[in-house]
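<backbone_tokenisation>
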Amino acid sequence: MTSPHTVEAGRPRLAARRAAALFALVMVLLSPGEALASFMPPEVEDKLATFLALFVIFVVPVVLIVLFWMVHVLPEKIAHKRHHPQFEAIRTLCLLSLVFGGLLWPIAWIWAYTKPVMHKLAYGTDRASHEEEAEGDAWDEKKALHEGTPGLHDRLARLEQRGIPASEMKALRADLEALEAKYAQEAR
């Protein structure tokens, strides 16, 4: 026989079980009859998937290639900014690093931040002057256009305009003519 205290203690449990069963029944009846994996219609899903696939196939590789290029050109830009005397060699190493998949890039990076040890001893400076390089390149281009010594004569005329004494100019012209004569004899 059960005591009245146990019957009264079991009623709240029974009521909770009935409420849970009723809640589960309501949830099952309110749930949709068809389960969908997406909140979008299938046509929209197909268009989105096509767009995403084309984006991944065409845009992402281009962006990655551009980023790869930009990172591998950084040592060259650093060397140019710091007037590194071996700038051209660092540029070449950066291009080689692109060919070899980036294996040489750390070497170019370290090289761009270092100063050559013996360069100052040999050339008197540990910095390259890009202005002088630009003037030299321009002179080389003029030389290639004229194909001969008029470039030297033009440079001599510019020196004369700067106010160099006439005696020094005569000596320079005589040296230039002697070199031209010597070159003409060797060319024969």
